[in-house]
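Record filed below.
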Amino acid sequence: MAAGWNEVFERSRVVPPPCQTVRLAVESHLTESHGFQLSLSRLTAAHLPQEKSEGEQDVTYQLRVTLFDRNHQQFFGKTWKSSPQKMKTTKISFNEVLYFHTSLRLLSTVVVLELVSLSPRPDGSQQALGRGFAVLELFTNRPEAADGDRRLNLHHGSPRSLLHPLLKDTVEYSSLLKTIDGAHFEYVLKNHQALVSVMHLLPENVLISGNENIPGLATSPTEDALLRPQLLKMLPFTLNKLTISLQPSLEKFESQLLQLINADCHNTVRPSQHILSLDSNCT
């Protein structure tokens, strides 16, 4: 049971956004959360950085996606990870559709995508190496960033480079980040109004795939429960009595504490006893 609760905790742990960003959204009257759909089809990478790793012949690639606040240089939400995929003729097909909802519709809110290679180690674990990352601007006034098919350039290095002081308050990353030649993501970003009816089942600022098991949603024949979400029928129930037993109880704790104090008193030799024993030895 303990291992199960640990798994639930790890799966449910979410990093909150910066409080300054939340305050700014409220002051900008952005209190209503909106739903979005992010489709990630494939990555074309003719010239990926090829650091040597163990088991290179069995290497697979994983996509990791996280929300990021560039004004305060802080990742938030929870990192979503794709299933590992093989590269075929310089292309990696992910074909993943992600959903999320947020009220932080500010220029500072972006999505960071990292490409990671996974290779097996002799002990059965996996060695993960970053192969590059990209930054997707969600809310911008530029007309070329409207809904539709887009390409996103892949940059050298790790997403942790976004935490460098030189990038603080930077509006445009392209002039400071080095692009990997011939490497880009193909994606589609859309508003997803159908998410409004099920937002109470999904934590805000968390990326989730439609094929994940979402309590409260009916399964879909398309294996994408969030494309056209259908709520399960609600069944009311009455809870007559709830008993919570906390171990150890306060009474038991006090009893054990008194026993330890008494035992400590009996086992402690007083200073006067030390003096008497020393005097008797001298005589």
Q: What stands out?
A: The beta strands are 34-45, 60-69, 74-81, 91-102, 109-120, 126-137, 148-155, 179-191, 208-209. The radius of gyration is 28 Å. Residues 147 and 210 are 20 Å apart (CA to CA). Helices lie at 2-12, 19-27, 250-267, 271-282.
